[in-house]
Amino acid sequence: MGTKSWWGRTDNRLLEAALGLAALFVGVFGVLLPVFGVVGLIDPVDTREVKVETATRVPGEVTDAVAGHGMTLTGTHQADLAFAHPDLNQRLLLALPDVIGGLLLLLVLALLLRVAKTLRDGDVFVPKNARRLSVIGLTVLVHAVLSPVLPAFTTQALVSGTPMAEQIPASVTFTGEYVLLAFLILALGEVFRRGTKLRADADGLV
């Protein structure tokens, strides 16, 4: 007696549509709009959330210098670094972490969409999917490294040579969640690779 799969064409189309919409959303809001802001087509990103060691207190004699650089820093511990009129370089530094993160996420979604399309043939255990999962795992690992490094690097570049440099210490905080996820995806890709190899060997014996 044959068994009927619970996964049908409608499910596959819904999955592909969801991944496609997610990619479109990330492409528009995570990449295009920040880039448009950098080149001046729309209002740019002008605020960066930063960490400060103590409550933000800019002395009176420094206030003029801060105003001269077009920056304000408000908040305690988690503060907002705002730019009144960011120039091109500042707009680029403010948008860069979001744009890079958006591009990496777009790559992951595009590869997942390619994996989902193999369900049309009823078999996801193919060599191409093993390679795609490996690339997804490496992309997630790169994102895990860049997501804390890029904001820290660009923030220091933004405040370098200004009174804000003393208020905002350089700090990078790594979290293990994305690293763990990356290694799990890489392990899954290896399982796919070995499974497809074993099946190819078994088919060759028939």
What characteristics describe this protein?
single chain; 206 residues; mainly alpha; elongated
Strand and helix layout:
Blueprint lengths: L8 H31 L7 E9 L4 H9 L2 E13 L4 H30 L9 H33 L4 H4 L9 H29 L1
Antiparallel strand pairs: 1-2
Helix pairs in contact: 1-3, 3-4, 4-6
| Residue share in helix | 55-70%
From N to C, what is the helix and strand string? HEHEHHHH
Number of helices: 6
The tally of structural domains comes to: 1
Proportion of strand residues: 5-15%
Low-confidence runs: 56-68
The strand count comes to 2
Mean pLDDT: 85
Radius of gyration: 23 Å
Structural class label: mainly alpha
In order across it, which strands form the biggest sheet? 1-2
Major sheet summary line: 2 strands, antiparallel
What is the end-to-end distance? 23 Å
Shape designation:
elongated
Describe this structure in words.
The protein has 206 residues and is mainly α. The model is unreliable at 56-68 (pLDDT under 50). It is elongated. Helix 3 (88-117) runs antiparallel to helix 4 (127-159) and helix 4 packs antiparallel against helix 6. The protein has helices at 9-39, 60-68, 88-117, 127-159, 164-167, 177-205, and strands at residues 47-55, 71-83. A two-stranded antiparallel ribbon has the order 1-2.
In short:
The chain is mainly α and 206 residues long.
